[in-house]
């Protein structure tokens, strides 16, 4: 069956973005190799000084530490506008495919998600609109939970957990009645007890989780991961930075881009 015009255009754009990211990755590797080479030369030329001060508490940062080759790009920390909230009809009452290009621990991976535009039209319309505008590009996944519930939360350009696209919406759509969110679920984050507070933040469930409803209800399920959940599990395996079971992941995660079709 011949590809449609939209599919050909999607493939062309994905190829262009892939080539751009490959070029960026090569540039990062070249910079890292250059730093390693400079440090090696400095260590040879001034070897006595480096050895004499190894482990010195007086100036522990005297010798620069090179980044590992293949490190992920720096994440955004600036607030962004997502424009206007799109009408739910923009979800077209159909299934969408979203591909999240992730970089974690210097490793690139893809998480592919099916978005249910029929069951969660407002959430899917918003997510697709933000993705097409590049809102999610180079944004961090700022929260990992490893006790009680098992999710990786993303979608805030500021990385603080308080950022959003400049609009909020509700009501809650397609929430499970039994409060069970199977592994692979992608759902919208919101403020507690406020079903009208959804924006850009979402979470990926990497292990089956029971997330209790509050006075507003449950959480809008907009889709399911169809491939790449192992990349999220790998981040979870590295743990989080706090001792509470809830905090920034030890292996920083960057969403380099999101493509939808």
Key words describing this protein structure:
261 residues; two-stranded antiparallel sheet; 23% strand; 12 strands; alpha+beta; 26% helix; ten-stranded antiparallel beta sheet
Structure description:
With 261 residues, this protein is of the alpha+beta class. 26% of the residues lie in helices and 23% in strands. The protein is built from four helices and twelve strands; from the N terminus they run H-H-E-E-H-E-E-E-E-E-E-E-E-H-E-E. The chain has helices at 5-45, 47-52, 121-132, 229-237, and strands at 95-104, 107-116, 139-141, 143-145, 151-154, 180-181, 185-188, 202-205, 209-210, 221-227, 246-247, 253-260. The strands form two sheets. Strands 3-12-1-2-10-7-8-5-4-11 form a ten-stranded antiparallel β-sheet, sandwiched between helices. The chain is globular. The protein starts with a helix and ends with a strand. Mean pLDDT is 81; it is low at 28-70.
List the helices and strands and how they pair.
Elements: H1 5-45, H2 47-52, E1 95-104, E2 107-116, H3 121-132, E3 139-141, E4 143-145, E5 151-154, E6 180-181, E7 185-188, E8 202-205, E9 209-210, E10 221-227, H4 229-237, E11 246-247, E12 253-260
Antiparallel strand pairs: 1-2, 1-12, 2-10, 3-12, 4-5, 4-11, 5-8, 6-9, 7-8, 7-10
